[in-house]
Amino acid sequence: IGTVQEAKAESATQAITAMTTPTALALRGGHRETVDASSLVVGDIVFLKKGERVPADVRLVHTANLRVIESALTGESLAVTKMPGAIAESAQLGDRTCMAYMGTFVIAGDGTGLVVATGDHAELGRINAMMSAVKEQKMPLQLQ
Fold it and tell me: Which of 49, 92, 117, 141 could form a disulfide with 122 if both were Cys (CB 3.0 to 4.6 A apart)?
């Protein structure tokens, strides 16, 4: 009985891991293929669709009614409409409508884009690095 339960537990663990591992639909060898998001590199073509998390920072080359929730980056609670096109180099993060950022969520439409940054080099990675660099300070009452 113990061996059967152990096998079932292992199976359940593998299923949960598979569900929580970020994946992406990317162009590989001329075909669309589901890959681990961690295997994406700059220059990959990825396809975004409703209900998915954006796997990397992506410059959009095609969109169809694409709307993304960027609250993790900008704090904006409303979805942002995304479309390809040129923007000013000085545009703020929330104004870059031709970009989709790692960790944000597609809530409508679909799009195709070119990966321009991954992992620690993506906007979310930079924010994480800045937060990690902040030193913890004691409050005045803690000092006493």
Answer: 117
CA 34 to chain centre: 15
Exposed (0-12), middle (13-18) or buried (19+): which is 134, by Cβ within 10 Å? exposed
Token pair for residue 89? 């180099």
The structure tokens listed for 136 are 């913890």
pTM: 0.74
On the question of pLDDT at 82 being above 60, the answer is yes
The stretches of the chain forming alpha helices (DSSP H) are 2-20, 71-74, 123-133, 140-143
Distance, in Å, from the CA atom of 138 to the CA atom of 129, rounded to the nearest integer, reads 21
pLDDT score recorded for residue 100: 93
